[in-house]
Amino acid sequence: MHPTPIVRLALALIIAVAALPAQNDFRDVMSRIHEFTLSNGWRFIVVERHQAPVAAFYTLADVGSAQEVKGITGLAHMFEHMAFKGTQKIGTKNYVQEKEALERVDRAFLAVQAEKQKINGGDPKRIESLEKEFKSAEAAAGDFVVANEFGQAIEQHGGRGLNASTSYDKTDYFYSLPSNSAELWFYLESERFLNPVFREFYKEAAVVREERRMRTESSPQGRLIEEFAAAAYKAHPYGEPVVGHMSDLEAFTRADAQAFFDKYYGPGNLISVVVGDVDAARIKALAEKYMSRIPARPVPPPLRTVEPPQTVERRLILRAQAQRVAYMGYHKPSMHDPDFAVYEALSSILSDGRSSRLHQNLVQKSKVAVAAAGFTGFPGNKYPGLFLFGAIPSPGKTNEDVEKAMLEEIKKLKETLVTADELEGVKNRARAGLISLLASNTSMARELAEWKALTGDYKNLFLFLDKLNAVSPEDIQRIAKATFQDSGRTVAYLEPVQ
């Protein structure tokens, strides 16, 4: 779950630009942004910032867990673990021999799965024998691995912040380097997408399974969020867990991963952003030299599944040894909707800062909750998502108490106009809290890439302020009435075991 949507960060960037001295105003920032697309479809954005001899390098793949189907849930997240395993040239002592060893691992894994999937559950002794063969094949393939060679190459050249992440809407890879090592990034990044090798795949699948156990199955909050999303979505993959279902994590194969990669990680589905002490012309030349080696592939088709309208309230209760928590979710449009800025303003009025309505009325005044928030952007922004309310009851209070209090705040939004001061506060809080965003090369790279991927044009990042400025109290009331309907509500309680 991402309680602070990317749009709020984007808003901060816009306001920060407007608040800077004249020499660094909006026109100056825009004049240093360059954009080009290679012949294979790989898109690039370059921002020249010469304050320090470093640069942030960021690649966004326009694919997330929303592109998965039953049977392979969790594969997008697996690429976060595979991202730095290397290529046919990096991370191996002898790829020709390693390739044969990896194929033996695959065959051994499939043999284990075939026995386990028999109607009678398979022969335990046969399974034990096959698993020994599988472990032996894994060990033999491991002899060819040069551990962390990809990461060490980056660290030896002064790289920092090496990481990757996965969400419903995207996967991304990023780190910073001294600007005189820019060519290293182009070589490594092109290799990553040209000849990746999913070595140690099944070992990493075991790591992901343990991650799921810790963050979901052993975490009452994690389980509640997973159950809540599944209840809110009947058809759309936003209802599936990013980490994947355990049975899929136990059964998907390296061949499944390769097929997913081939479909969704072609150059036409990638956006890279370079921000820092670089020359745009040289960056373009390096991109042509290295990334153009990758053949173009068809851009994957758009997601077909559309969540049907919710016409009945859905409720669930999870009982565990944990503190009470209540969630309420209402379906809302994606960020492509004309009222997207209205939802963002509403989210800010409800939850941003100690002067926000939910904090003031539920935490400070009535003391019914120790924390409360209402925000947009869950599970994502690319497709229609949820406006999510959440609260932790104060000691002696119940989930019913906080739900009643949150519904009362919704009622006020429907019946009474918010004030002009509250709308002005949306902009002021963003300016005060996130003006430092422009100082971070990585944050700027992420925002430009996400707006490019989600809207088709990074310039929409800078146009969003006009839309926010146009939001009126009447808009807030109209959206509250249209969105917060009992029939479209999903409610989830975490209740302590009695």
List the helices and strands and how they pair.
Layout: H1 6-19, H2 26-31, E1 33-37, E2 43-48, E3 54-61, H3 75-82, H4 95-116, H5 124-142, H6 149-156, E4 160-166, E5 171-178, H7 182-194, H8 201-217, H9 220-232, H10 246-251, H11 254-264, E6 270-276, H12 280-290, E7 314-320, E8 325-332, H13 340-351, H14 357-365, E9 369-378, E10 385-393, H15 399-415, H16 420-434, H17 441-455, H18 460-469, H19 473-483, E11 489-496
Parallel strand pairs: 2-6, 7-11
Antiparallel strand pairs: 1-2, 3-5, 3-6, 4-5, 8-10, 8-11, 9-10
Q: Given the C-alpha coordinates, what overall shape results? A: globular
* Uncertain segments: 1-25
**For the report, how would you describe the main beta sheet?**
6 strands, mixed
Rg (C-alpha, Å): 25 Å
If helices are DSSP runs of H or I spanning 4 or more residues, what is the number of helices?
19
Strand-and-helix sequence, N→C?
Answer: HHEEEHHHHEEHHHHHEHEEHHEEHHHHHE
The overall pLDDT average reads 91
